[in-house]
Design a protein that fits this description.
Elements: H1 12-36, H2 42-91, H3 98-152, E1 161-168, E2 172-181, E3 184-191, E4 195-204, E5 207-214, E6 218-227, E7 233-240, E8 250-257, H4 261-266
Antiparallel strand pairs: 1-2, 1-8, 2-3, 3-4, 4-5, 5-6, 6-7, 7-8
Helix pairs in contact: 1-2, 2-3
Length: 272
């Protein structure tokens, strides 16, 4: 006689343990990534951490699917065995006790088919979760590759390029062209009011310090600022040597990287 298989039990304690494991994995991955990838920019590091977590969880889900597939096959085989036993009973109706066996088998088949269908549903949810993780991993890998490709262009001479420049609160605007060689930075600028001249200074630990040497005023200003993680913006403070300590002698500034001529040419022109 084929006995009914016990139904799988998913306790609340088991669910709590699963969430606890997820929390520990997330924490461990974040700590490990922080130790191994100190040089990465914040956006890259966040994406790397998320990617590591997704891959870890995908491995767990794949392992769970292997268990679920084994259980599904076993339940399918049980349904097949019960139907075979049912066919044998139906083929010999005159045997004593056939009616009782037939009734018992029908009941067992109902239970076994319910268990099999429930296993199919659970497996389907797991497969959908695996598919979604695969999609997220692909999206994270593409985004991380884009960031790394963009940031690689600024590894040598991160501040090299042309920048729009605004000095506040005097609202004086213009642009500057900088060239970085190691930690040394030099360049030129033009500002509203016909002011122009040269810039020279240093760039260390993503901090920029520049001396402004004006063609009319001489050494007139110091600018200090920081480069944003995306290497597309800078902001900081300025100090006018002549007016230091008085009204209008200091303020803050912002700069935004302007596209190079090559990038501008590659952009499609607007339709007329």
């Amino acid at each position: 006689m084929i006995e009914a298989a016990p139904r799988p039990v998913f306790s609340s304690a088991r669910r709590r343990n699963r969430f606890r494991q997820f929390g520990l994995i997330t924490l461990a991955v974040a700590l490990i990534a922080g130790d191994l990838l100190p040089a990465e920019l914040p956006a890259q590091q966040s994406l790397t951490n998320a990617l590591l977590v997704e891959r870890e969880m995908l491995q767990e889900d794949v392992a769970k699917h292997a268990v679920a597939a084994t259980a599904r096959n076993a339940m399918g085989q049980r349904v097949t065995d019960l139907h075979r036993a049912l066919d044998e009973v139906v083929a010999a109706p005159a045997v004593q006790g056939a009616a009782e066996r037939l009734e018992r088998l029908l009941s067992q088949i109902d239970v076994a088919e319910g268990d099999r269908d429930a296993a199919f549903d659970a497996e389907r949810l797991l497969l959908e979760r695996i598919l979604e993780r695969e999609r997220r991993i692909g999206a994270l890998e593409r985004r991380l590759a884009e960031l790394r490709s963009r940031d690689e262009r600024h590894v040598v001479g991160e501040v090299t390029g042309t920048w729009s420049l605004t000095l506040m609160p005097i609202d004086q605007r213009g642009r500057c062209r900088l060239t970085q060689d190691g930690t040394l930075v030099r360049g030129t600028y033009e500002l509203d009011g016909g002011f122009s001249g040269s810039l020279q200074g240093t760039f260390v630990n993503r901090t920029l310090v520049l001396q402004r040497i004006d063609s009319r005023l001489g050494k007139s200003m110091e600018l200090r600022g920081a480069l944003a993680p995306d290497a597309q913006r800078m902001r900081g403070t300025w100090l006018n040597f002549e007016l230091a300590g008085s009204v209008g002698g200091s303020g803050h500034w912002v700069a935004e990287r302007l596209p190079t001529a090559e990038e501008s040419e590659s952009e499609p022109s607007p339709e007329r």
